Amino acid sequence: MAHQPYPRWQHQPKQLQQGIPLAAKRVLTKQLGELEAAGFVYKRVYAEIPMRVEYFLTEIGESVYPIIQAMDQWGKSHRDLLEKK
Known about the structure:
alpha+beta, globular
């Protein structure tokens, strides 16, 4: 099934790694592969030297994005409570 990428959410793995500095590169690569297999992201590989890879949200990935943002905001606003446990 072909996925229509959403260009407003376009990232190279290096950009994602910088946004999640505690995530190991191997773990991030594995998670991106799982998200791709589930249809949440689309991976585009460019035939360049050096090779360039970009990830885009698919339609279903875009549909859950507001939920992820809400969960992120909830976590940030409850950080103190969560860190005490």
